[in-house]
Structure formats: C-alpha cells, structure tokens
Design a protein that fits this description.
With about 325 residues, the chain is mainly alpha-helical. It contains 14 helices and no strands.
C-alpha cells in the first residue's frame, strides 16, 4: 500500500473522502495559488502599486495558464516553499517579462500559500456542511422510526453544535494573509471573499488550528452513530478514522512559529481534512444501512417532546 490509504489504488474507496479529496491535490493547490496571484495583482493595480496593464495581464494569465507541479519540486525543496518556483514558472509561461516581473510584488511566499490554503479550506467546509446537513436529515428519519431512535438522537445532539458553529468558524478562521498592509489586505480579502483578520497571522496560525479542532471534533461525534459493539466495515472504518483524526490533531502545537511548524501543518492538515471527509461518507452510509435494516431488539421510542426538539433544531436555518 502507499504511505496513506487515501491515495492507494486498492484502498482509496475504503477511505474515500469524496469531493474533499480533490481539494488536497497538487493541481488544486497550484490552481488556488494562481488565483491568489492573479487577484493580488488585480488589487495592486487598482491601488496603483503596480502598472494597471501588468495587473490585467497577470490576472488574465492566472485564469488561463496551467503550471505542472512536477516542475516545481527541485526549487521547492531548496526554498522550503512552492511559491518562488511557481512565480518563476508562471512568469515564463506568460512570455511577457515586462509584466511578469510584477508577480507577487512586495509579497511574502507565505502570504500566497496561506491565502490559497484558505480558499481550499473554505470549499472543504462547505462540503462538510452539505454532508453534515444530509446526515442530520437521515438521523431525523431514524429518530422517527423504530430503528435505533435513541442512538440517532445521541449522535444528532452531538452534531448539531458543530453544524451551528460553522458560520462563526468561517468568519473567524477563513482569513486572507497579507502581513500588515492594512488597505491592500482588506481589498484582497474582499476580492477573494475571505475575512480580513486585521493582523498578520502568518506565525500564530489560529485559523488553521480552529478548523483542525472543528474537524477532529466532528469525526469524534460521527462515531456515535455506531451501535455498541458493532463490527461491520462501515463502523470499523469510522472508528479508525476517529483514531487517525486525533493523531493528526495532536501534531498541531498550541503556538506555532517557524518553518518546522509550517511543515508539520502541511503533513497533518490535509490528512485530517481527508479523514473528516471519509468519516462523513462512512457515517452517511451507516445511517443508510440502519434505515434499510429490519428493526431488531427492543422498541426504544423517543418521547414526542424529545423528537420534536431534535427535528426543530435540525431544520433551523
């Protein structure tokens, strides 16, 4: 098998992360960084920090050009960042050196990496939100039936606060990165539809940590859909993903700084998000199995009051 089952030829369907998996690929990362580079040039041109003609050329090229990630590996290994190699490759493909020299003008590589990461995490959280709401609808159906209604309510009660925390998490954690350039940072945040953190978060990294916390808590809550002692494939995979999630989350120090901490985040955060996506898929599959299964064991009906409160909470906008 490969180093991770998420990209294993024969195990990837056992730990399938769904659409979230596509967000943590080389091509998705490079595409996100090119979007940031193009948008940065656009706002810099509007602020007269670079020539408007260069800004338009860079922005247009960012939407049209494709950079092969494999060609960036040697320089990325030397620099500890993909951005310098990407800027060089991007500039070469533009075939307009008079404009390409303004790529990433007066900007740190980390700002491009981090802003691009936030674009991908925003989409990942949207996918989690959609899957979570679909699962909650399944749990409502289970709670209304004779099939494990108390377990459905227990799992649903654990999931609801995590779903309801998403709007505040997005606002707090999905922030653009652009140092202390207040006006330009605000303009870039608006253009990318990210939040302006009001500060330079490159070192303290509370945003990625907050998202990692939420993802790990979600994976733990999803395991509550398993019946005690259940040993089927879906239940076993879900249990293993909880262990995996806890291990990945433990790799994030409470206060991060320096290249080593960034590299640790690169190792842990994609694995954590892929595990969360896989856990959501297994939980939904397990809920479907429960709905299709004939009732077994004693009839544990919920009170109408408890059921009503749960259904109303799930339906809340």
């Amino acid at each position: 098998m490969t180093a991770t089952p998420f990209d294993s030829a024969h195990l990837h369907k056992l730990f399938a992360a769904g659409e979230i998996g596509k967000l943590f690929s080389d091509s998705a990362e490079i595409r996100a960084m090119m979007i940031v580079l193009g948008t940065l040039a656009k706002v810099q041109g509007a602020a007269s920090q670079i020539p408007e003609t260069a800004a338009k050329a860079i922005h247009r090229a960012s939407l049209e050009l494709q950079v092969d990630p494999r060609g960036l590996a040697e320089q990325a290994a030397r620099d500890g960042s993909t951005v310098p190699a990407l800027v060089e490759a991007f500039g070469g493909l533009m075939q307009a050196p008079e404009y390409a020299r303004y790529l990433a003008h007066d900007t740190r590589p980390e700002d491009i990496e981090d802003s691009a990461l936030m674009l991908r995490l925003r989409q990942a959280l949207t996918l989690c939100d959609e899957a979570l709401n679909a699962l909650l609808d399944q749990l409502v159906t289970l709670a209304r039936s004779d099939r494990h209604p108390c377990e459905a309510l227990t799992c649903g009660r654990a999931l609801l606060p995590l779903r309801d925390a998403l709007p505040e998490l997005r606002e707090r954690a999905l922030c653009v990165s652009l140092g202390d350039n207040t006006e330009l940072r605000a303009a870039l945040a608006e253009a990318l539809n990210l939040a302006d953190p009001g500060c330079d978060w490159r070192e303290e990294r509370s945003g990625p940590r907050a998202i990692a916390d939420w993802a790990a808590q979600l994976t733990q809550a999803l395991t509550l859909i398993r019946a005690p002692g259940e040993t089927g494939t879906e239940a076993a995979a879900l249990a293993s993903l909880w262990v995996h999630s806890s291990a990945m989350r433990s790799m994030f120090p409470s206060a991060q700084c320096g290249p080593a901490a960034r590299f640790t985040e690169w190792l842990a955060l994609p694995q954590l998000m892929l595990g969360t996506g896989a856990a959501l898929m297994h939980a939904r599959a397990l809920a479907t199995l429960r709905m299709d299964r004939d009732p077994t064991g004693p009839d544990h009906r919920l009170t109408q009051e408890a059921l009503g409160r749960f259904v109303a909470a799930v339906a809340r906008d």
